[in-house]
Here is the input.
Amino acid sequence: MIAWLQDLLRERFHDRLMLWQTDAGEWQLTLPDSEAVIRIHCDFDTFLADPRTLACGHWLPRDEMAWLPDGSVGLPTPGVAQAPPRMVEQTSQGCKLNYDLLGLAYWMLSRREEAGRRDLDSHGRFPAEASHAFRHGYLERPIVDEWFAVLRKAMQTTWPGISLHEPHYTLRLSHDVDTPARYGLISATHLLRNIMVDLLRERRRDRHALLRAPWLWKASATRIDPRDPFNTFEWIMEHSEALGLRNAFYFICGRTDRRRDGDYPPGHPAIVELMRRIHERGHEIGLHPSYHTYLDPAALKAEADRLRQICEQAGIRQPRLGVRMHYLRWQTPETPRGQELAGLVYDSTLGYAKHPGFRCGTCHEYQAFDPVRGQAMKLRLRPLIVMESTVIQGMRPRDTAAAEARLLRLQEACQRVRGSFTLLWHNTMLEHPQQRRVYERVLGRHAELSAGAGQVSA
Here is the structure.
């Protein structure tokens, strides 16, 4: 665990940092050519206790404001009910931090809080409402990144002139391809059902597309008809390419639940053609495993192998394969173990389905850690900050301002710590003008934040 934390700190700050745990029960950070040291209070056992009883206070300094992250007036202190009178002390040897921010980082990033939990939702997911972050009001803050910003300032004080890694804010746009077409790639029975549902319940559905539905269905034998209301792929790619962004599109390649998994066969000519176009335009193909694979390593590996085979046959050269689990189903540590066995390079599942925010306390990619076996993993984790449906589901045209404001707050929180705003937006949720307006506003704000980059952060 100490080696994993040391690698984490080296990746975030400096390649030669060394982390020790002393007999006195402190963390110590040193550099090979310096006698200066950063000492950090270690209260690791606190983070091994029952997370449902873990305390949480708040550091609201009066005379230590300079140590806080830019734009912050205080920081939550999970594990500590009352912040110490003095959080950062400057000594003759360097600095001392009186809060176990490394224990916090381990606890949040490893998702130890979720291991063995039984208070799950109907899909077997650990819900946001059960998390310490939600219950104590810091879910929408990248708390690990903010505490690392304090540590960064301590490093700059302890080792004046040190050259620290400078990360950059990014926008990661991703799209789970659950339903690539409304009227294509389905059976005639399913087509009739969709038409009836749209006539009776979906008042906002494009009536022209609805009238053309049988022809759209017939025309999708080799390519999804451009007029299909769910075929928003070209629109998505055009908008990203205008900003130099590379999106990820995650495809379903199996079926373990007849009701919840995608209806399209992964090797369908129209799907292969879509994958090829995505790849040719410089975007990424990823895996969206079927519903039950989060606890079924064999099925997960079979679907990953199936996608690799399809890509190879289509001439898609993409050696690294990323993943996002269907319905955001995830169990610590079983799911990442299965992903690693399947040869997947990174995962982007770790967000909540019903609440946006920072499930892992960070918006930076990092190496996964198995809190049960106590082992670092090869798998990389890219935390998901928000899925569009948590913010815009059922949104009426007049509600766009509130949805935009919430998304932009999260986006700006990522920018302040120079992290990645990882946003999941389904192709099916760009059918209506108000949905597209909100999406375009996020892209516009990204351009503004990128142009104004330069803020100090973790």
In short: Residues 433-451 form the longest helix (19 residues). The first strand starts at residue 18 and ends at 21. The mean pLDDT is 92.
